[in-house]
Design goal:
Layout (H helix, E strand, L loop, with lengths): L1 E7 L4 E8 L6 H20 L9 E8 L3 E7 L5 E7 L7 H20 L10
Length: 122
């Protein structure tokens, strides 16, 4: 199970949400929105130390009984959240970080598209 979520600052408006498999997509909206509070807490706790970094991988935001929630924030404060099964022990921190980088690169490609209107859903 993978759930990808991208939201724009400052309203945390969802730009993209994708669930694999797709039948439980609405189930994860609550999980993702509660994780945005954890992302904001981590960003404010880290403070100015993060300003100089190129990427802001936040790591594991919180585990639940069934899922693990990971976070990533760009320099422009766009937040990425990923939810994976807790039973999937094959995923390591480096692989999650790599998935976030690929997701960030895809997001950047969309934003650079001259036919994309900023603020539209992806």
């Amino acid at each position: 199970l993978f759930v990808y979520f991208i939201c724009s600052p400052p309203q945390n408006y969802p730009l993209y949400i994708r669930s694999v498999p797709t039948e439980n997509e609405l189930k994860f909206h609550y999980t993702v929105h509660t994780s945005l509070d954890v992302v904001d807490e981590k960003i404010s706790a880290m403070g100015k130390a993060l300003v100089d970094q190129r990427e802001l991988y936040l790591g594991l935001l919180y585990p639940t009984e069934d899922y693990k929630v990971y976070g990533y924030v760009t320099n422009s404060k766009v937040k990425f959240v990923m939810v994976v099964d807790s039973s999937n022990t094959a995923l390591r921190d480096n692989e999650i970080r790599s998935m976030f980088r690929k997701l960030h690169n895809s997001y950047t490609d969309i934003m650079c598209n001259p036919f994309y209107n900023p603020g539209d859903r992806i």
